[in-house]
Amino acid sequence: MLATVARPLSESDPFAQPGIALEAGTLMGLRHLARRGNGATTRGRSGLPGGLVTRRRGRGTEPDDVRPWAEGDDVRHIDRNATARTGTLHVRTHHEERDRAVVLLADFRPSMLVGTRRSLRSVAAAEALVLLGWRIAGDGGRVGLCVAGAEPVALPPRGGGRGMAALCQGLARGHAGALAAPLHADPPLSPVLERARALLPAGGHLVLASALDSPGDGFSDTLAALAERISVSLILVSDAFERIAPPGLYPYAAPDGRRRTARISGRGRPAPEDRLAAYARLGLACLRLDTETGPEGFAPLMERLDAVL
Length: 309
Hints:
- By secondary structure, the chain is α/β, with parallel strands linked by helices.
- It has helices at 24-28, 31-34, 80-86, 121-138, 160-180, 190-198, 219-229, 240-243, 272-280, 295-306, and strands at residues 45-46, 54-55, 62-68, 90-95, 101-107, 142-148, 153-159, 205-210, 231-238, 248-253, 259-264, 285-290.
- A hairpin with a 7-residue loop joins β1 and β2 (54-55).
């Protein structure tokens, strides 16, 4: 079930096929999906993922304009300098200062190199993160990248198309390194969380896309501590086999290279919703991502997540 190779990818290599390999050009091409629904009705709003979206409260902190007083204006917004200079009441308006800096953390550890429908979980995670990144960049935000895998990648937040191009290339490079690396046990995620946190300025956001298999000791404590200091979101990547695995015997390759067999009785791991509930209690914004859905289905989920960042 683990897709790993020990040689460079080539056109004749089965692991270079869509759904297994990541190409920067393909990720760049997802930009058109991210544009859907990215209009004035969704910008400048906040709320939890779901059907209810609310406008941000308050007048903002960034000065916008000075205009003459009008009936109904708040006296607290009177601009003293303009009033003294003109001899008539003037008020200063403000707009929300929203310089979003987001670091996307992609889990490319060996347990993510698994897939039974359409793509590996690692590929689905990258596609979803890129869709979210395009939305953020299109709204004037800055996007960075951190990869947990055989070839670590760390990119500080950057804005615009150039920032997204570097991000797509970083994802492709990190994923190729993960596919080419020898099979080994998953390293813990906590050190990668700390590296991602170091890339963020104050008030930034961290978005982790992972199946959270073998996250390592202390992962929940590290995540809870981070959630107290910054905004943390979790995209739980789920493969269909995890949710509806038929009972039977399944061969697999162990991290030591030996072939082994697992017996599936029909009673598998906890449902994704139950796993998400535990992390939601830590203060994370959580959503489930099914690999078989594809980028077309990921786009509205990333729109919902974008609303809370």
